[in-house]
Amino acid sequence: MFIQTETTPNPATLKFLPGETVLGSGTADFTEAGTAAASPLARRIFAVPGVTGVFLGSDFVTVTKADSAVWDHLKPSVLGAIMEHYQSGAPAIEGVAQSAHNDQAGPDAGIVEQIKELLDTRVRPAVAQDGGDITFHGFDRGVVYLHMQGACAGCPSSTLTLKMGIENLLRHYIPEVTEVRPVG
């Protein structure tokens, strides 16, 4: 098995491409080892000292390191953990992956569906190239709240991406949108 790696705009995060499907559908974001109980793959990667986050995409794994860790020392161990996982035959996630977006009913349901559609078709494929994901969290009085995951979480350029890219896109297509804000 040959696993490719790619840098991301976030220097604390590397994207690993195992050349096989990671998740058949959806994504999974684990911001600490304690949240990875349902993922044999994430648990194995978190066992590597210095790993602080694991994000699973359709065909990639994004790993975030602690500030004190150095990629030259960490990368071989992470590659080994991913290779061991695929050799074990265990699934990346046990059970069903959750929907990426939050649901929101009510009078703004039509606007919310338009927002999710634009995120799914225009935004998420682009940020997946950088090893991350951006999902819908909520919409209230013109403000869209988005959740940044994987390489997007903590990325130095994420504010610029949100304001200049996503906010402008949503405001162009959906006049009811006035602002985009990240949620933690």
From TrEMBL:
<comment type="similarity">
    <text>Belongs to the NifU family.</text>
</comment>
<protein>
    <submittedName>
        <fullName>NifU family protein</fullName>
    </submittedName>
</protein>
<dbReference type="InterPro" id="IPR001075">
    <property type="entry name" value="NIF_FeS_clus_asmbl_NifU_C"/>
</dbReference>
<feature type="domain" description="Scaffold protein Nfu/NifU N-terminal">
    <location>
        <begin position="3"/>
        <end position="89"/>
    </location>
</feature>
<dbReference type="InterPro" id="IPR036498">
    <property type="entry name" value="Nfu/NifU_N_sf"/>
</dbReference>
<dbReference type="InterPro" id="IPR014824">
    <property type="entry name" value="Nfu/NifU_N"/>
</dbReference>
<dbReference type="Pfam" id="PF08712">
    <property type="entry name" value="Nfu_N"/>
</dbReference>
<dbReference type="InterPro" id="IPR035433">
    <property type="entry name" value="NFU1-like"/>
</dbReference>
<dbReference type="Pfam" id="PF01106">
    <property type="entry name" value="NifU"/>
</dbReference>
<dbReference type="InterPro" id="IPR034904">
    <property type="entry name" value="FSCA_dom_sf"/>
</dbReference>
